[in-house]
Specification:
single chain; alpha/beta; Arc Repressor Mutant, subunit A; Rossmann fold; six-stranded parallel beta sheet; 13 helices
């Protein structure tokens, strides 16, 4: 029986996504109609439909089941129903409001210039966070749908839960992550370009020995900041950087390895850190072994978070231009709401902000 249910679920899902029952937003045929079409028992079809509901391929609204394998077609029954519910709201999902990166992005979306623009159109922004809990994230996204949000801006973090977003009937724009080959558009910074800027700057500042400190949460093979930094050094005729990876600001074991490395160095070293908080941790590590910034070690971070200008010396860093990313995301979302065609990825050019940490 399990095999029959699994096979039926697979067939039903394929038929739904292929458009056999209409575009996304159409009503799913009744269980009785499905039993006749698939020659299955009521219980078997009920379990198959329940499984697809858990996946998000279909969703319940009231007592009816609707196809939700993408943005609801403007002419569909679900689109009409959601329009009647219209709360004139935009859902803003943040993985973690405690994370400085996501907090900065959220603040940019909620900045006065953007909220003024949204308010002039009669919209408000509803913000919610689910941490790293996919079930909470799924529940929040479904809540945004159920209350009639016009669309969603989401910061998906280090993963892409396809079962949440691929089958969401609302327009969704991702912010801060480069998610190629996905069903939703995203706004992202050019990571490789940013890393090349950091490498060229450190080289021009006179450093000829280099280190890259990455994040344990990002796989080295997919880390475009490491790739860009290494490529630019190669272009300049320099050897690849020494590579370290830490879990974050408080990674004592990771920074202990880094301290041992710098104790053995006599010549100035240029360091590019995956983000500003890693750079802040490096400040403490270098101070504890008597190394000075920027005389002994030049440091460049990434994100231009609030901490960057507060460090002493101020941290040179690559700015993601959060305000511009937020404006582009909002504009893109409204184009989607209006059913316009938008690019899969919209890039924001990074800007290098030079402070005392890399000026010898």
């Amino acid at each position: 029986m399990r095999t029959n249910i699994a096979a039926l679920q697979k067939k039903l899902k394929s038929d739904v996504i292929s458009g056999k029952f209409g575009p996304s937003g159409s009503r799913l045929p009744s269980l009785r109609e499905l039993c006749e079409a698939y020659e299955g028992s009521y219980v078997t079809l009920q379990k198959a439909v329940s499984a697809l509901r858990d996946e998000g391929v279909i969703s319940s609204f009231g007592k009816k089941e609707y196809l939700t394998y993408g943005i609801a077609d403007s002419s569909s029954e679900l689109a009409a129903m959601l329009a009647k519910k219209d709360s004139r709201a935009i859902g803003l999902y943040v993985r973690s409001v405690e994370n400085p990166f996501f907090a900065a992005l959220s603040s940019s979306v909620l900045s006065s210039s953007i909220t003024s623009s949204l308010n002039s159109e009669g919209y408000t922004v509803l913000i919610s966070s689910g941490g790293d809990d996919k079930e909470k994230e799924k529940a929040i996204i479904r809540k945004f749908v159920s209350i009639g949000c016009a669309g969603i801006i989401s910061f998906p973090g280090g993963y892409y839960p396809s079962e949440i977003y691929d089958y969401c009937p609302l327009p969704v724009v991702f912010l801060g992550k480069e998610l190629t080959g996905r069903s939703r558009p995203c706004i992202a910074v050019k990571n490789e370009t940013a890393a090349r800027m950091a490498a060229k700057h450190l080289y021009d500042a006179g450093y000829r020995d280099f280190v890259y400190i990455g994040s344990e949460t990002v796989d080295q093979t997919s880390d475009k900041r490491y790739v860009g930094f290494t490529k630019e050094l190669e272009k300049l005729g320099e050897a690849p950087p020494a590579l370290f990876r830490v879990t974050g600001f408080g990674d004592e074991r990771g920074y202990a390895q880094i301290k041992r490395y710098f104790k053995s160095k006599n010549d100035p070293v240029g360091v590019f850190c995956y983000h500003d908080l890693i750079a802040a941790g490096l400040y403490g590590a270098l101070s504890s072994i008597g190394k000075s910034i920027p005389q002994d070690v030049g440091v460049v971070g990434f994100d231009d978070l609030f901490v960057a200008p507060l460090l002493r010396p101020g941290l040179s860093t690559v700015s993601c231009r959060f305000d511009l990313m937020a404006k582009k995301a909002t504009k893109l979302l409204f184009e989607l709401v209006e059913r316009k065609t938008v690019p899969d990825i919209t890039y924001v050019n990074p800007v290098l902000t030079v402070r005392g940490s890399s000026q010898r």
